[in-house]
Amino acid sequence: MLTPVTGPSYPAYQPVQYEPHPEPSPGQQPTVPGTEPGPQPGANAAPQAPVTPYPTPGSHTDPISEEEARALRTLRDDFALFDTARQQDPGQADGVVSRNDLRAVVQGSQYSAEQKAAAQYLLDHPDAFYRADVPHDHSAHGAGDGADGFIGRDSVEDLLLAWDLDERKRGVAANTSLKTLIEKDMPVNGHVTALDVVEANRETIEEMAARYGIDPALLAGVVASEVDFDHNPWDAAVNTLGELHGPAYKLDPGGPGIAEVHADTVKRSAKYLAEHGVPGAEQARQFGTDAENLGHNSIEAAAIVLAELQHRKLAAGGTVDTPRDMAILFGAYRNGFEDPNTHQPRYDFVGNRLLGDQGIDGVGNDPYLSEPYFAYYDRQYG
User: Fold this and answer.
1) Model-level pTM?
2) pLDDT tens-place string over residues 75-95
């Protein structure tokens, strides 16, 4: 939990860094992207051959800028249009954007100023193109950088997720008393591990979401947020699962305890589902709350709790349709939907806000930090 603790000092939080692009080896140099001849917009030609996107001489790799993020958002939101800019035929979409596609957008009269600006930015900044070209997980798996001269939608999504998370973590660290906790609990590029854990558990996430009648984007976002935001051994140690299994971030993808649900919470939720006839009530009643089962079936435990919280939000007149809706439920998942002493609600489930102390952005730290994950998975499952 994001509860301030005392302890040793830690290095200042740094924004997300990206690996510098490898320099060409001595001898014959590869073709510099952007200098190769390409078909004119609308030409029915074979796709451009992939080339290693080396930056132009004298360029260097910097952390992603706001301008780069703006260009990538435009590319993401209009990806299908960029994908077929070279071919000028929606039927020839190939799922990637090449430099020839970007040039066609810059030259075409049918594209908006925003689309042209995004295309021109990526053409003018080889390092930005390289970052969008490289899959997020290449370094995590020890493989080559994976660059092939084409930009895929998934790489753009991953890069923008890292940017959004980094911006929010910096905002929380700069504006609250949780600066030290943010710095030590949320290392740079924690999203890479989070995405890998969700991917390794995708089948289970989808199965449990269907069983308990919740959106898989909600369950995936909760798992990703728990993995990213809880890297601290102390945090895990005070958790029943942590005492048995260790910090969630040190587990292999698919390991136990990744959603960090407590036994008493699952029991409460199972009782609520039975009393209100919520889908999955019988399976929840049979779910074992011993430490071993909670650890090894952590995702199902999370789904049971989220099914209760979703039902409470809908019963209050709220919705569970948007990333902000889901982020509020994550806040209730981590902090409780009500004060345990007064039984007063902690969240306005209709207005999607934190009651009392408004916290950052009016929703509190946990919902604010986690919202990019719910937006990410909402687009995946949408």
Assistant:
1) 0.72
2) 999 999 999 999 888 888 889
Cα–Cα distances in angstroms (integers) from residue 105 to residues 114, 122, 248, 358, in the given order: 10, 11, 45, 44
Looking at residue 139, the DSSP 8-state letter turns out to be T
Let me know how many helices (H) and strands (E) the chain has, helices first. 18, 4
β-bridge mates for residue 343, sequence order: none
CATH 2.60.40 fits 176-381, yes or no: no
Q: Would you give the DSSP letter of residue 176?
A: S
Distance (Å, rounded) from C-alpha 332 to C-alpha 338? 8
Structure tokens at 294: 């909670």
Please report, for the chain, the start and end positions of each structural domain, with discontinuous segments joined by +. Answer: 66-157, 176-381
How many CB atoms sit inside 10 A of residue 343's CB?
Answer: 7
Return the structure tokens found at 135: 């899959």
**209 vs 381: CA distance, rounded Å:** 12
Instruction: State how far Cα 8 lies from the chain centre.
Output: 29
How many CB atoms neighbour CB 311 within 10 A?
20
Point out which residues pair with 353 in neighbouring strands.
348
Give the whole-angstrom CA distance, residue 300 versus residue 315.
Answer: 23
